[in-house]
Amino acid sequence: MQSSALIRVENLSRFYQTHRAISHLSFSLNAGEVLGFLGPNGAGKSTTMQIISGNLAPSEGEVSISGFDILESPCEAKQQIGYLPEHPPVYRDSTVNEYLQYCARLRRIKSNAIADAVDRVRQSCGLTEVGKRLIGNLSKGFQQRIGIAQAIIHDPPVVILDEPTVGLDPIQIREIRNLIKNLGKQHSVILSTHILSEVQTTCDRVQIIRQGELIYNASIEMLNQGRKSSISIALKRAPAADVLQRIKHVSHVEQKDDQRFHLFFDTASPAEIIVQQSVENDWGLIELTPDQQSLEDLFIELTQHQNTDHEKVLES
């Protein structure tokens, strides 16, 4: 199955006896893309990551990595991937250098190239100062870095990161986030995480699954451009809510306090008219802000009702 996409997932399903973990999941990952893979607990994210990385067999469907089918050509397909599972596969009794050298041999890097490969990932992942230290004596943040280093030791075109910042403090999260950004310059990345701000700042595209089904797929640019049909305003000398309700294009007014309102509209934005009427009527406009939909708003909207059927939203 040849394709321009580095990863192509088609009609992927996985059952555990009668439980359906994922159902007819299809998506792709293009070269140079960082994809945020989101979903509530139990949505099927880790199952999907394990299947793509070749650690779990699908019940149905196909996965190809750089054109290699994960079932028909597993060795070739897996060689295209670097994988960091939720719990980094590090050996606590090894030094960083020993562990990375071992990973390089597992990845069949030639003996005369191992030292250069280890040096490269140590520099990329900020491990140059800890090469001789025991992994078990390092912080969880450093252990996550080591986990990422083993995933890229063979310089794969695709890197899969499953919850790379779980259990880290805010400073460590920021460091790993910057590392992921740098990875995206040289690799295609699938990032599975619960930290939504992380996706919005590091990813090019986001997709959300619920109960094993894809319900949203769009670029971060489209998400950032997406706005709710409402405006927040604050007025020093605010009129009654029904006066604001009569402004052209305003469909509904929600009053927050004596000065602050949410104005909802169906078609054109009433912002220009609000400014004009505020000047004419001396309302004293002190704030006018279009309400922008955040990734968190979207995520909650699409996933909060786990037992209801939502129409799938698939945008290019």
Tell me about this structure.
By secondary structure, the protein is of the alpha/beta class. The protein has two domains: 7-223, Rossmann fold (3-Layer(aba) Sandwich); 228-292, Alpha-Beta Plaits, CATH 3.30.70. It is built from eleven helices and 15 strands. The protein has helices at residues 45-52, 74-78, 96-106, 114-124, 140-152, 170-186, 196-202, 220-225, 241-245, 271-281, 295-303, and strands at residues 7-16, 19-29, 34-38, 60-65, 68-69, 81-84, 158-162, 188-192, 205-210, 213-219, 227-235, 250-255, 260-265, 285-292, 313-314. The strands form three sheets. The chain has a seven-stranded mixed β-sheet with strand order 6-7-8-3-9-10-15, sandwiched between helices. A four-stranded antiparallel β-sheet has the order 2-1-4-5. A hairpin with a 2-residue loop joins strand 1 (7-16) and strand 2 (19-29). Helix 3 crosses helix 4.
Strand residues, percent: 25-35%
Terminal Cα span: 22 Å
Q: What is the CATH domain class of the largest domain?
A: Alpha Beta
Task: Calculate the mean pLDDT score and round it.
Answer: 88
CATH topology descriptor of the largest domain: Rossmann fold
Low-confidence regions: 307-316
The share of residues in helices is: 25-40%
Q: The biggest beta sheet, please?
A: 7 strands, mixed
CATH architecture name of the largest domain: 3-Layer(aba) Sandwich
What would you report as the Rg, rounded to the nearest angstrom? 24 Å
SS element count, helices: 11
Going by helix content, strand content and strand pairing, the class is alpha/beta
H and E string: EEEHEEHEHHHEHEHEEHEHEEHEHE
Query: Which homologous superfamily in CATH is the superfamily of the largest domain?
Result: P-loop containing nucleotide triphosphate hydrolases
Form type: elongated
Report the strand count.
15
Give the strand order of the largest sheet, numbering strands 1, 2, ... along the chain. Answer: 6-7-8-3-9-10-15
Q: What count of structural domains?
A: 2
